[in-house]
Amino acid sequence: MAPHRLDPLLRPRSIAVVGASARAGSVGAVMLRQLVEGGFLGPVHPVNPKGGTLRGLACLTSIADLPEPVEHAAFCLGDETIAEAFDAALRHGVKAATIVAPLADPALRERIRAMALEAGIVLCGGNGMGFYNFTDRVRLCGFATRPDHVPGGAVLLTHSGSLFTALVDAEARIDYALAVSSGQELTTTLADYLDFALDQPETRVVGLFLEAARAPERFVATLAKAQARNIPVVALKVGRTRESAALALSHSGAIAGDHAVYDALFERFAVGQVRSVDELASAMMLLPVAADLGPGGLASTHDSGGERGLMVDLASEAGVRFAALSPETVARLEAALDPGLPPVNPLDHWGTGRNYPADFEACFQALMADPDTALGALALDRSAGGQVTPLYLEVAHRARAASGKPVVIVSNHQGSGGDPAAVASTRAGVPVLDGVPAVLRACRLAFDRRGLRPRPPGRRRCPGGSRRSPPACRWPPAPGA
Q1: For residue 341, what is the domain's CATH number?
Q2: Does 303 lie in the same domain as 208?
Q3: Is 102 left (phi over 0), alpha (psi -120 to 50) or beta?
Q4: Does the pLDDT at position 78 exceed 90?
Q5: 470 found inside a domain
Q6: Where are the stretches annotated Disordered (predicted)?
Q7: How many domains does the chain have?
Q8: CA distance 315 to 407
């Protein structure tokens, strides 16, 4: 793979953590811990004037004491000390830096920008959370994340640090290759990160949360690149209202711009627009497994007539068409349904419960086999503690295997619990998603992408940065997996 200009930033060969600390919970302590425990493969040099040892590593008192040049310097410092330390790092010869300090004073911010541009380095921040490159085991974030990350094919690029933590730390169903909180983008913009992500063979979907495109021409070029490579891009653009646009300017210095321009831009380059974080997450989970949808519409089955009616209403609002069932499919449904249940799509399969679950599975298999079904949805309500009924998982995976079509499990409401089986199922190719409106928006985006040129097959990375193809996740998962 050809080198990329962001390699020193996102895939560095060595890192100095300036402001590394032993104080529990501090940014300097968390960033060093995550870098070491995340398995970074190159040298890590903690830097702190007190010296000593941190995480089993000798702590240097100054970056000038480094025995050899480092490629990337990560700064865990406040605004009052960042300029002097940054200047020392530039004199040392670093090629990239990450700054999480707020750089609240505009004069300080412009000074850091000018220093970086003059030195020709690439910089993440300031006033950001940092980034995670899970593919290459580079975890440069000063806030603790969950310990169970599995490198995958999703990319998240965001102007919101809080959304960064919400989708990376709290959503285990999305396996990331790269997640970046870009902050003030003093030298490196969201378009630059997108360009890097599009060059990585593991990238399957990109989610954007943006206030504005600070480098418009480059942003347009990278969207065109994503379209040419048929990599789905989903965007949550804020600043639709005058009030929101003003807040974007005060938050990160971004000028939100005319939203109609973004609407036209996203339509031109097949970027899927979403309106909420839930819609963004659902789309990032569904689009990779629905990349090659055939002709037809949605087929869904429910164990509630009322919830089926709600699905019809919401699908109409979302512009999602239901599959028109063939006479053969109708006959198969009639043979499996209790008397009085109409053989229609969407289907209410629950009657007296006789011959359950065989008839229930027969109904879903019939729906999935219909020639006009492109995508199947098994709609349910989670049970106590947020658990997904094991039978529903089994039926969904068997239907996917038998039909060769994508299947999604849709929970009307997640509730307060969680279920590891939902994570395992999503990784194995049947996403378990929550909230019908968000899922229907994701379905609409998947249907809208039909007709785009199929993505050429490429190799995906396995954990550790090697280029071997990783083994596919299987269902059911092995005990203890």
Answers
A1: 3.40.50.261
A2: no
A3: alpha
A4: yes
A5: no
A6: 450-481
A7: 2
A8: 17
Q: Where are the alpha helices (DSSP H) in 269-357?
A: 277-286, 305-318, 327-336
Asked if residue 464 belongs to a domain, the reply is: no
Same-domain pairing of 336 and 239: no
Which residue is it, tokens 């911010």? 109
Residues 138-191 have pLDDT tens digits of 999 999 999 999 999 999 999 999 999 999 999 999 999 999 999 999 999 999
Residues in CB range of 324: below 8 A, 6 or more apart: 297, 345, 372
Query: Could you tell me the residue range of the domain that residue 345 belongs to?
Result: 291-450
- CA gap 383, 430 in Å, rounded: 19
Residues 230 and 305 in one domain: no
List the single range of 50-54, 148-152, 308-312, 352-356 with lowest mean pLDDT. Answer: 352-356
Residue 259 pLDDT class (50, 70, 90 cuts): confident
Start-to-end CA distance of the chain, whole Å, equals: 32
- Residue in 206, 213, 202, 200 with CA at minimum distance from that of residue 180: 206
What is the C-alpha separation between 43 and 41, in angstroms, rounded?
7
Question: Do 191 and 302 sit in the same domain of this protein?
Answer: no
327 Cα distance to chain centroid? 41
Residue 285, in any domain of the structure: no
Q: How confident is the model at residue 248 (pLDDT cuts 50, 70, 90)?
A: low
Which runs of consecutive H residues, i.e. helices, occur in 42-175?
Answer: 79-92, 106-119, 161-169
The neighbour count for residue 155, using CB atoms within 10 Å, is: 26
pLDDT at 480 > cutoff 70:
no
3-23 burial by CB neighbour count: b if 16+ within 10 A, else e? ebebbbbbbbebbbbbbbbbe
Helix, strand, coil distribution of the chain in percent, nearest 5: 40, 15, 45
Q: How many of the other CB atoms lie within 10 Å of CB of 159?
A: 26
User: What pTM was estimated for this model as a whole?
Assistant: 0.92
314 lies in the same domain as 181: no
Percentage of residues of the chain with pLDDT beyond 90: 85
**Residue 61 is encoded by which pair of tokens?**
């008192």
Are residues 35 and 139 in contact, defined by beta-carbon separation less than 8 angstroms?
A: yes
Q: What is the mean pLDDT of residues 51-77?
A: 95
* pLDDT (0 to 100) of residue 455: 52
Interacting residues of 95 by C-beta distance below 8 A, sequence separation 6+: 8, 12, 71, 72, 121, 122
In a domain, 460, yes or no: no
Same domain, 240 and 317: no
List 176's β-bridge partners, or say none. Answer: 154
* Confidence grade of residue 240 (pLDDT, cut at 50, 70, 90): confident
| Residue type at 120 in one-letter notation | G
